[in-house]
């Protein structure tokens, strides 16, 4: 297996930083991995997960979305302005650009998507609109796009930003009303229940039963919205990141289960 840094060009915007994990020998598919809110491509389990998928015979691409707060290929939050301006539409545009790059790099091998948390929501929307998606896996995915309460809305109405604290680093970032305005303009597009109902690709919903950030109820809601067609896999006694931390301290039983089930799902659907 090899891991190469890549730059994904976009119109009128700086390139996205990524890493492409290439399997030894022939590949049977390609998987795009999307991080969530306050995540980034090098956080905790993402390199481990991409390595595992490559070991199972898949190209695996992990990318920094443009609103993640990291300017280049690093692990230091050095782009507060990019974070402040992040929107769901921006996440979706970034993900679509990454899909186009991955398909070009892998000669249009069967395509899979994997998204964690808010990245799971992005993956749901992309899977509903992209005919080439052959398999979908979401980890701890959100079931509703509106995540901020009335206090944030009031602050934005006063022309202020809304502060959020990175629990790992203690840094305080701010979110502009761009997020709310974008969601208001695109509420139908980001109606995750409606998009879930439209997904034709085989879908595995993985969720920690004790998720402290996105309750298991949201996974159950997505499953119901999709008419019960996806496979719902609650993993007991684990939370939002399946016990993984950053810097990565090694796999946990819950993370191993999530990864093994994910690899098996893509092997059976992308072959």
Number of strand elements: 10
Strand order of the largest sheet: 1-2-4-3-5-6-9-10
Strand content: 15-25%
The biggest beta sheet is recorded as:
8 strands, mixed
Can you describe this structure in just a few lines?
By secondary structure, the chain is an alpha/beta fold. The protein is 35% helix and 23% strand. The protein has helices at residues 46-55, 80-84, 88-105, 118-129, 150-157, 178-185, 192-198, 216-225, 253-270, and strands at 2-10, 13-22, 29-34, 58-63, 111-116, 133-139, 162-165, 172-175, 203-208, 231-235.
Task: Give the topology.
Blueprint: E1 2-10, E2 13-22, E3 29-34, H1 46-55, E4 58-63, H2 80-84, H3 88-105, E5 111-116, H4 118-129, E6 133-139, H5 150-157, E7 162-165, E8 172-175, H6 178-185, H7 192-198, E9 203-208, H8 216-225, E10 231-235, H9 253-270
Parallel strand pairs: 3-4, 3-5, 5-6, 6-9, 9-10
Antiparallel strand pairs: 1-2, 2-4, 7-8
Describe the 3D structure:
This protein is an alpha/beta fold. It has a single domain (2-144, 188-270), classed as 3-Layer(aba) Sandwich (Rossmann fold), CATH 3.40.50.1820. The chain contains nine helices and ten strands. It has helices at residues 46-55, 80-84, 88-105, 118-129, 150-157, 178-185, 192-198, 216-225, 253-270, and strands at 2-10, 13-22, 29-34, 58-63, 111-116, 133-139, 162-165, 172-175, 203-208, 231-235. The strands form two sheets. An eight-stranded mixed β-sheet has the order 1-2-4-3-5-6-9-10, sandwiched between helices. Helix 4 (118-129) crosses helix 7 (192-198). The chain is globular. The protein starts with a strand and ends with a helix. The mean pLDDT is 96.
């Amino acid at each position: 297996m090899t891991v190469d840094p890549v730059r994904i060009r976009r119109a009128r915007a700086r390139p996205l930083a990524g890493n492409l994990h290439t399997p030894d020998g022939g590949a049977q598919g390609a998987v795009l991995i999307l991080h969530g809110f306050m995540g980034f491509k090098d956080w905790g389990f993402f390199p481990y997960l991409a390595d595992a998928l490559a070991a199972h015979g898949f190209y695996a691409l992990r990318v920094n979305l443009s609103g993640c707060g990291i300017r280049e290929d690093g692990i230091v939050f050095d782009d507060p302005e990019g974070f402040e301006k992040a929107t769901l539409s921006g996440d979706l545009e970034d993900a679509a650009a990454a899909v186009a790059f991955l398909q070009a790099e892998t000669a249009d091998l069967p395509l899979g998507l994997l998204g964690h948390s808010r990245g799971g929501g992005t993956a749901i929307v992309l899977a509903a609109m992209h005919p080439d998606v052959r398999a979908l896996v979401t980890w701890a995915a959100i079931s509703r796009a509106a995540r901020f309460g009335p206090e944030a809305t009031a602050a934005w109405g006063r022309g202020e930003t809304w502060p959020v604290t990175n629990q790992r680093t203690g840094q305080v970032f701010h979110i502009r009303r761009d997020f709310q305005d974008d969601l208001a303009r695109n509420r139908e597009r980001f109606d995750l229940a409606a998009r879930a109902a439209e997904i034709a690709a085989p879908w595995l919903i993985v969720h920690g039963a004790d998720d402290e950030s996105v309750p298991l109820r949201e996974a159950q809601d997505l499953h119901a919205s999709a008419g019960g067609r996806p496979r719902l896999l609650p993993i007991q006694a684990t939370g939002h990141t399946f016990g993984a931390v950053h810097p990565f301290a090694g796999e946990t039983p819950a993370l191993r289960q999530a990864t093994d089930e994910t690899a098996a799902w893509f092997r059976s659907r992308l072959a």
